[in-house]
Design a protein that fits this description.
heterodimer, A: alpha+beta, Sufe protein. Chain: A, Arc Repressor Mutant, subunit A, GMP Synthetase, Chain A, domain 3, 3 domains, three-stranded mixed sheet, 46% helix, B: alpha/beta, Aspartate Aminotransferase, domain 1, Aspartate Aminotransferase, domain 2, 2 domains, seven-stranded mixed sheet, four-stranded antiparallel sheet, globular, binds FE2/S2 (inorganic) cluster
Chain lengths: 274, 395
């Protein structure tokens, strides 16, 4: 029996947003009966371009149903651009994780979302393009390369867990290995180190001390790190900077750019008065 | 919550009498049956009695029984022995629906250079005996054919098949793990050379099995070691479990009629109720030549794991041939061999009953499952489309 998290079980037993939106702005079906799971996703936007309703229908196992249910909850209230940023890992994280062998359920969710957005934009569904590598499950080269890259996969087994490719007759194993080797040798794999909060704060502190304060101090100003809340870096300006009308710009441009470059790409700097 | 256990082809509960009989041999009587002292010797006597009990349920002689650790070991021993004692022959015949204990071993042997014939089955899971006879060649060392299928319960005509093999000087092995204790078996009335059985499928504990080896059959042991089992299987005997297996066989022999009347009636009641109440479902496998306790039903357009987990919420235990539960991403090899369409294969559920099931339990399942299927179908993107197909008579 699979080790499902309580959140997966809960979404499986009480799936949210089941059904189909009427006159949807975006709609797509991915997967197939033959493959053992399929997902139909429909959504509708409000007048501000935010997703006001999203519904799903799933043929599949417990984690496929839970992933689809989670996905609809995640995209509601988001703009299409925001929703487009959701990765399969985000879906898995929302559910408190999925068993490795079931990660393909989260990938199916992401694929359906992408295809529905493409439909909304009048573009072709991204996963339908490219050469089929795994005949058994109809998985394309692009899809495999992408999942390898995004999830930093290393083995054929992992690719099978995430895409099903290679889980049937096994004829495609060599081709999958080639894709893994190619993607990994291209060095395109963004291996962002996972930072603990303490590490993050330390690095921010060091970067501000080393890269930013000396320059400000030359002009008679200074900068103090007040707090770090998630990705928000709260700072206060001192001395000349505090009264400088352009200080806000300075902060945004210089400090944020430096921190994003050297510490974490998603940091946002905010000025507080203290 | 009460557990309703309908997964007896996977494993069974240990019969209370059996547990009671084996306990002293885990506590006070821990002697080694090979020892010279009385303390060990008394244990040896009980092992001898167990051997007689196991022999009796299949109409064999006690010396034709070799105790093993499980059905898989018995299967591996039998097939490897046949190949080792027929070094000139390089061909083996089996079927596409064998248990992995035979299926995977056969695939391994093919890699090792043996020629392998895996006989197909028809849509009801039946073999074609003529086709089988044609597959036998002078190069064939062994046929391994299961007596009854673990997933569908379909029974193969192994006795006829064994005669056909024998006439050509070919050894015949049958994996009877699912058959022993459920249908009558009499080795005096056939010419099967080797037969595997397993304890935990008939209310003995896990970790004990037996291999029947017809007297006079040449043999090459799988586990090489001490002189236990007359040198045919090394390793100190699993005394408590062997004693348990003996008694379990005794009880199973007594309950054989119950199995084929009471249990069968309950199975049929469940099956008919579900066929009646749930649209678009069907039974997989020949309903006539079938074990009395097994029912394999496919529910179209829903996925087996989802059904099982919903059943689990009610304490109902069954199993499925869907991809998600097989761990292989593809539906069960048995259902695929039968050509069960994908719309059906992914939604297959196997119920396997035992003498411990009651009519209330069966009624509860018949009342509960239709709602679960309806619920899951409401989630399925294929259900309405499929229903429409059906209405147009294309389904
Ligand atoms: S082609 Fe990929 S598993 Fe068969």
């Amino acid at each position: 029996m699979w080790e499902y998290t309580d959140k997966v079980k809960e979404h499986f037993l009480n799936p949210r947003n089941v059904g189909e939106v009427e006159n949807p702005d975006g709609a797509a079906t991915v997967g197939s009966l033959a493959c053992g799971d399929a997902l139909k996703l429909t959504f509708k936007l409000d007048e501000n371009g935010r997703i006001k309703d999203a519904r799903f229908k799933t043929f599949g196992c417990a984690s496929a149903i839970a992933s689809a249910s989670a996905l609809t909850e995640m995209i509601k209230g988001k703009t299409v651009e925001e929703a487009a940023k959701i990765t399969n890992q985000d879906i898995a994280n929302y559910l408190g994780g999925l068993p490795e062998e079931k990660m393909h359920c989260s990938v199916m969710g992401r694929e359906a979302l992408e295809a529905a957005i493409a439909h909304y934009r009048g573009e072709p569904a991204p996963t339908e393009e490219g050469q089929i590598i795994c005949e058994c499950f109809g998985v394309t080269e692009e899809e495999i390369a992408r999942v390898v890259k995004e999830n930093n996969l290393r083995t054929i087994e992992e690719v099978t867990n995430y895409t099903k490719a290679g889980g049937g007759c096994g004829n495609c194993h060599e081709a999958i290995q080639e894709i893994i080797d190619r993607v990994r040798s291209q060095g395109k794999v963004v291996t962002r180190p996972k930072l603990s909060n303490i590490q993050k704060i330390k690095m921010i502190e060091e970067t501000i001390d080393r890269e930013i304060r000396p320059a400000l101090q030359q002009d008679g100003g200074d900068l103090e790190l007040i707090d770090v809340v998630g990705n928000r870096v709260l700072v206060a300006t001192r001395g000349a900077c505090a009264s400088c009308a352009a200080s806000h710009l300075t902060l945004k441009q210089v400090v944020e750019a430096k921190l994003r470059e050297l510490v974490w790409p998603e940091l946002e700097v905010e000025e507080v008065t203290s | 919550m009460k557990t309703i256990y309908l997964d007896n082809n996977a494993t069974t509960r240990v019969a209370p009498e059996v547990l009671e009989a084996m306990l002293p041999y885990l506590q006070d009587y821990y002697g080694n049956p090979s020892s010279m002292h009385t303390f060990g010797g008394q244990v040896g006597r009980r092992v001898r009695q167990a051997r007689e009990q196991v022999a009796k349920i299949i109409g064999a002689q006690p010396e034709e029984i070799i105790f093993t650790s499980c059905g898989t070991e018995s299967d591996n021993t039998a097939i490897r022995s046949a190949l080792a004692t027929n070094p000139g022959k390089r061909h083996l015949v089996t079927t596409r629906v064998e248990h992995p204990a035979v299926h995977s071993l056969a695939a391994r042997l093919a890699q090792e250079g043996y020629r392998l014939t895996e006989l197909p089955v028809d849509s009801e899971g039946r073999l074609n005996l003529e086709q089988y006879a044609r597959s036998l060649t002078p190069d064939t060392a062994i046929v391994s054919m299961m007596w009854a299928n673990n997933e569908t319960g379909v029974i193969f005509p192994v006795e006829e098949a064994a005669t056909l093999a024998h006439n050509r000087g070919i050894l015949f092995h049958t994996d009877a793990v699912q058959a022993v204790g459920k249908i009558p078996i009499d080795m005096r009335a056939n010419c099967i050379d080797m037969l595997s059985l397993s304890g935990h499928k008939l209310h003995a504990p896990k970790g004990v099995g037996a291999l029947y080896l017809r007297k006079g059959t040449r043999f090459s042991p799988f586990l090489i070691g001490g002189h236990q089992e007359k040198g045919r299987r090394g390793g100190t005997e699993n005394v408590p479990s062997i004693i348990a297996l003996g008694l379990a066989c005794d009880l199973a022999a007594q309950k054989l009629t119950t199995e084929n009347t009471v249990v069968k009636e309950l199975r049929d009641k469940l099956e008919n109720a579900l066929l009646d109440r749930v649209p678009r479902c069907r039974v997989n496998g020949d309903r006539v030549q079938r074990l009395p306790n097994t029912s394999n039903i496919s529910f179209e357009f829903v996925e087996g794991e989802a059904i099982l987990l919903r059943l689990d919420e009610y304490g109902i235990c069954a199993s499925s041939g869907s991809a998600c539960t097989s761990g292989s991403l593809q539906p069960s090899h048995v259902l695929r061999a039968m050509g069960v369409p994908f719309t059906m294969a992914h939604g297959s559920i196997r119920f396997s009953l035992s003498i411990y099931n009651t009519e209330e339990e069966i009624d509860f399942v018949s009342d509960t499952l239709p709602g679960i299927i309806e619920d899951l179908r409401a989630l399925s993107p294929y259900w309405e489309a499929g229903d429409a197909l059906c209405a147009r008579g294309e389904g």
